[in-house]
Batch of 2 targets.
Target 1
Amino acid sequence: MSVLNSPNPVTEDPGVEPLNEKSLRAQDVHEQRLLLSLATPAVLAVIAIVVIPVGWLFYLSFTGSDGQLSLVNYQKMIEYKSYARTFVTTFEVSILTTLICIMIGYPLAYFLAMLPERLAGFFMLAVLLPFWTSLLVRTYAWLVLLQKNGILNDLAMSIGLWDSPLKLVHNLTGTLIGMAHIMLPFLVLPLYGSMRKIQRDLMHAAANLGASPVQAFWKIYFPMSLSGMVAGSLIVFVLCLGFYVTPAVLGGGRVIMVATQITAILENQFNWGAASALGVVLLVVTMIILTVATKLFKLDAALFGKR
Amino acid sequence: MSIQSNNLKTESSTALPIHVQDLTKKYGEMYALDSVNLDVKSGEFLTLLGPSGSGKTTLLMAIAGFNRPDSGSIRFGDEEVILKPPHKRDVGMVFQSYALFPHMTVAENIAFPLKLRGVSLAETAERVATALKTVQLDGLGDRDIEQLSGGQKQRVALARAFVFRPRILLMDEPLSALDKKLREQMQIELKHLHKQLGVTTVYVTHDQREALTMSDRIVVINKGQLTQIGTPNDIYNHPANAFVADFIGESTMLPLNLDGSGSLYFEDNLIKTNYKISDAKEWSLVIRPERLTVVKDGQYDPEKTIVFSGVVREFIFQGETAFAMMSVNDKYNLSFRFGTDASSWQNALQPGDSVSLGLNRSDVIVIPGGREL
């Protein structure tokens, strides 16, 4: 071959452009533009639905009732105890819901991950089915089940579990039951994904090296499923922070979370500034939690698909 | 691999023999293991060789305790282990996928079996360092598993399998994920390591060359049954049947006819006299391609050499040798290998050339049965 024998023609003759260099580069540029143009609708949508409203919200929160720029909305939040209580309740409900989801979701995901793939798909349907049902329907269904003369109380009393009807709804208990039910798939899905990735060989290796099933679980399986569990818990927790329907219906006015408070302010006082300030604080807190947790647990891969 | 240390060595008195007796495992209607009997000698390097689905891995997994056979017995020395869970069997194992724990460093992986056995921290550190040295990974203890190359992972898996001084070591195609050069290098290293450790080793592979290179004895396994057990030399030069002859090395099989006096003929060529008649109805002549040489008329001793004449059909340069195929009477194809050194290559053949090939009578291999076994 002549190429091997003769020196590279480019270095010899700087005046001549390498063969097809320009047109090949033009093709590269063309492809990149094409990819960008495919993303345009999504980018426009994000700007229209997220960036502009949030910006507007942000602006409103720094506006007093007279329309002038002021910090009055934030000052009120510090002054009135009810705001602080709302935030405490929000975090309390979110943390408890997340914990309940972990306690139910981890064994469930483990069970699914141990099944042969086809069977797991079937059982996964059972997890996902509620997902496709309206949130409102599921919430009111819980109301029917849990209320004073509801199915659960009737059943429990008829078999003698308890004598008088328990207060299962319009309080924290009801809120947690409903929220845990709705949030469960958000935990199970990432957890199941991370468990499926754990090779069976690893558990064999642990046993072969002398680990009892319990030791193998705690030393190998659990640490390896942790990233999925933290990712799922974080999703559940963050979704809980801003949740509205379920606490509003099943909490019966006793469980006031931030979203409920915002609605109340808008309905009763029509105070956009105060409502916006609450929204902004919730948004900022959520972002701080996400950032810290991501750094802390190295969740880039699990949450954002980075490698 | 240079021999670096001695305190890894399993005392040869504690290397254990393995006795497998009537081991049967069915998957549905298919026998993965069909009443297998096998004795692995203490300190021996024994290879289970067979095609995929032959049952070799099932047998290894049964020895390790990862699957539950339907019936039979497995003993390590005098101890019955068939009912013992895997974590109490105390055998080392190297997995095909290496099965290294990704959330632990190299050193933590190797220390894992020692921790479970309650070995003191100081001794653990010392033994991990020694094991790393033995597999030539000195100083890489702090690395994450993902930072290692395939060959390095292989070595870590190996170190982890022998660091707790098991008396039996099992390996499930440990080299199959490596490229050819590294694989051949590791074969030699593993062989040396086995000598150094003196541990009874059962090795599974589908690569016949790997089996021939490494083993004290080879067990050829097919369809859940042990077809032949022997040294590499035995297996290659005295295959028990067509399956073994076909699976190990290259071969051509030609059908033979038996006459009344017990002599075997291929066409008109007398192959063997006084053949001990077995129950078989068919016999085949197995010819290894590298044992055929081109002969010229009158330049060979017909007493010692069997000659096949035909026409060259293929002649392909492949590096260390050329692969060639000769057709005999347009009916049988006989493959042979041709040297590529300068003096041999002067006489290189072309398709269409007529040629005579000689086979030394001492290289004649006769097996019962035919090709389609």
Target 2
Amino acid sequence: MSEMTAPATGDRGFFDEAKYPGIFGWIFSTDHKRIGLLYFWCIFFFFCVGVLLGLLIRLELFAPGETIMGAQTYNAVFTLHGVIMIFLFIIPGIPAAFGNLILPIQIGARDVAFPKLNLFSWWLYITGAALAVTSLFTGGGPPDTGWTFYVPFSAQTSTNVSLAATAVFILGFSSILTGLNFVTTVHRLRAEGMGWFRLPLFTWALYSTAWVQILATPVIGITVALLFAERVIGTGLFDPTQGGDPIMFQHLFWIYSHPAVYIMVLPGMGVVSDIIPVFSRKPAFGYKAILISSLAIAFAGSLVWAHHMFTSGISDLAVMIFSFLTFIVAIPSAIKVFNWLATMYQGSILLDPPMLFALSFILLFTIGGLTGLVLGSAATDVHVHDTYFVVGHFHFVMFGGTGMAFFAAMHYWLPMIYGRMYDKTVATVAWGVMMIGFLILYISMKVVGMQGMPRRYYDYVPEFTGLNQLATVGSWILAVGLILLFANIIRGLFWGDPIAANPWGSASLEWQVSSPPPTENFGKDPVVTHGPYDYKEAGIL
Amino acid sequence: MSGHVHKDYAGAKFGMWLFLFTEVLLFGGLFILYSVYLSRYPEEFISAGQELNVWFGGGNTLVLLTSSLFVAISITALRRGAKRLCLGLLGATIVCAAIFMVNKYFEWSVKIDHGIYPGSAHLKEMQPGEMVFFNLYYLTTGLHGIHVVIGALILAWAMILIKSDKVNANDWVVLENAGLYWHLVDLIWIFIFPLYYLILH
């Protein structure tokens, strides 16, 4: 373990050094750690809002017929749940919050390549979020299209889709600028001795993600811009009465939104790749295989968008090609899982909270990934398309994958940023409660979907009542776990015991700075002499 | 790379190139729609394409290409310390941008006078492929026009910085990045011009 001791009481690193007084020291700061924390707490807030909406959806589905809300309200609530969770939580979640907090320190830089642009990205994020919220209360009422904004309905509905589309455009711009910043940072600001193959796997994952953000996001930009033009000036490019084709909207939408799935999950894989070696006390097995698979996922993931459209009327040949390509993405994903397992094999595994969340990522992501193959295969997809099976599938991958990785990152890195530790026992209990609730909730969804319950309806036939009630009870258990988890970590970060530097015993660079880190991270520019998982060379083992 | 670099020119240009890449992809969505609808309605695209005036498009191509030359020379001028020449060339570029937009205004006005614009009654009586063509034409040239205006504003901002010597013979990456953006605006037009004005004739 590192010989460094806890910082002298009162030395709060970058927390003490604000350029402007009060809140302005945060919202106008170009320090990557302050921006990272701004992102983190905003994202955290929107996640809580999204969870509340999800609980309302489950409550409505507790019994057939109208339980607590009517059809139109239900449409608005699930649209909002989707938009908030996708655009305000999962996509920016790990890259914008933990990428900003950790990536520069991990590569030995004092900040990102373009600090002012970084602050601008956050302002764009907040502007987009504000517009998304405004769209609920203005115009023709909250959007009711689902987060996918499919035409022709989205072009015709009287609800406030135009403003929501503008919000998505701005959020996309924010995402592009963050990606551009990270790619440049990794290329230009690595410390001396930090060669490409000494980059921590979290940085590699963020680097791959950043490329997807740069290459895919402009396409959603033009797509929602065209939707906006269609609604406001009637350009009709997707309107069959004007010669347009609604399927083209779906193509353009998924050319972004499928790669976006990898924007969501790749950073989570990076978190897990960094946590597992530390808590197994073993160097990462297959370091190069993991980083190459990150790049492979980023590449292959860009070629599979039409598997969302098997039932939309594309040709049989296209269905077969996209089905085949979809199976290819499973290979690099599986390579990662096997390498994680091999890293743990014969390691001295420590079941601290970050490791528990990383392990649940592996379990839940594997289940979610395998059920994804059911959907990627055209023959079975026709059977379960637009059923609750799909809803269960993507919650396993997104919440069970990225969400768990987000919690893992919270429990792993935030103590370093704040210099304080949460109560590990409470965190472990909260993890257990959450897992029970999670499995009850989403397995019920998969089963009821297999039985044929369609998604996006506020009502269902009485045969589905039992499983729906089970799912709703699961959602309550999950909520209890989440409340416990959040209360514990907030208490820990603000009032917990001060920690010594490097409490987990990691060999990567971000743990070699004092905690909380000083404003420019390093007093003297670091010189890297060993890899991020070389525990022997680092003197940890 | 070793350590902390306050002015990383290579990094700044690298970031700009990445950004230009995203702009290409933004327009890429419109070019995809063009190619799909062209293959679906080849005859109707040709009959609609005849309506566009190749002289308007050709004139604007000439204006934009000349403006790109001005920007390129202005960067060399600044590097050699000819500040006045540089400012003059940038001013000429912005004048070119204005000429382009005025030309565009007249081109659009003629079409709109004929009742051809998105959502118009006359347009809705046309063939499906013709409707798609004109809607795409307005969206693509409109989005490009917005970029011309943004590009001119960026060049004007660079001029202010050069005037106050914040951008100078030793520190000119801002001007070079502004110039790169202007070349992109030019480049996109180089694709729009043949696709809409030439190959359908």
